[in-house]
Specification:
There is one protein chain. This protein is an alpha+beta fold. The protein is built from three helices and five strands, in the order H-E-E-H-E-E-E-H. The radius of gyration is 13 Å and the shape is globular. Helices cover about 45% and strands about 30% of the residues.
């Protein structure tokens, strides 16, 4: 999995990434900054749980992705099979282009997790 995350980190606009399970437990990480990976995975798990409840309440189906932006960058959280991929975004990231570029990575991660 480290090979996939390493390639993902070389995509323009990506500032690091980590993979966690539905319980918010860290599976793999490749962050460039000094971030508490366990805490970030746990926070991501809590966000996924809340987003899932919101999607169910709205009747819009299963939660597959969401993003948030701050003045110093952003984060994109995407379903990757039974896991979730959290991608830290540089301030200059093009979200529309990045979503397209992330699709093959999500497919590879999902495939690897189902082996």
């Amino acid at each position: 999995m480290q090979d996939i995350l390493g390639e993902l980190n070389r995509v323009r606009g990506v500032g690091g990434c980590l993979l966690f399970n539905s319980d918010g437990l860290l599976m793999e990480s490749m962050l460039r900054s000094d971030v508490d990976e366990q805490a970030l995975a746990a926070s991501g798990g809590a966000l996924i749980a809340q987003a899932t409840r919101m999607c169910e309440a709205l009747g819009i189906g299963r939660q597959t992705a969401f993003s948030a932006n701050g003045d110093q960058g952003g984060v994109m959280v995407l379903a990757a099979g039974q896991a979730t991929l959290l991608v830290l975004l540089d301030p200059s990231a093009n979200l529309a282009l990045l979503r397209l570029e992330l699709k093959p990575f999500l497919e590879r991660i999902t495939s690897r997790l189902t082996l």
